[in-house]
């Protein structure tokens, strides 16, 4: 089998959620024998490396479990003709892809079509300014709530959500505190991705803050 020392990596950014594609070739490992890959948002999301060209590794922060993982591949896997699905070692969920560009592009296109179908089924496409951004913001808020990071200064953790075409309002029914979160642009999504805790100000209306105290 002839191996062409060219591959394509696609891994979702844990900060902004983008699933960009990145070409990789054998010359990227000359000298220091490692390559850092940055997302369009500026976050360094992947480091590729090899010590002896007999085994290659991919190191990244996992968007699923938020831990750092290192996956190892043989040269045949890393530079091969088949699509390699990168998975979280702890949850076995898909994180990205490695392989020929045409296969990686095809997999991403299939994912986008599935997302578009889900958005249409939910009726989001006619209501929200950017349905994908809104779903991304909602997904991050769910993660924050799951870890106990969504609450009000009055002590209430039962926070209601009102959704608008371009924003989300978090409402405390105990003290009527409200926090507004924009959900219109990629910048809005990046902001909430960088937020670990949302605390509503007691009895006040505020914009997104990690801690309004």
Care to give the gist of this entry?
The chain is α+β, with helices and mostly antiparallel strands and 213 residues long.
**Order of strands, widest sheet:** 2-1-8-7
Radius of gyration: 20 Å
Number of domains: 2
Category by helix and strand content = alpha+beta
Helix share bin: 10-25%
Q: Main sheet, how many strands, which sense, barrel?
A: 4 strands, antiparallel
Mean pLDDT across every amino acid position: 83
Amino-to-carboxy terminus distance: 63 Å
Order of helices and strands: EEEEEEHEEHHEEEEHEE
| Count of DSSP-assigned helices | 4
Description:
With 213 residues, the protein is an alpha+beta fold. The protein has 2 domains: 6-117, no CATH class; 131-207, no CATH class. It has helices at residues 75-78, 101-122, 131-146, 186-193; strands at 6-11, 21-25, 34-38, 44-50, 56-61, 68-73, 84-87, 94-99, 150-152, 159-163, 167-172, 178-182, 198-200, 205-207. Strand 7 and strand 8 form a beta hairpin. Helix 3 (131-146) packs parallel to helix 4 (186-193). The termini are far apart. The relative contact order is 0.12.
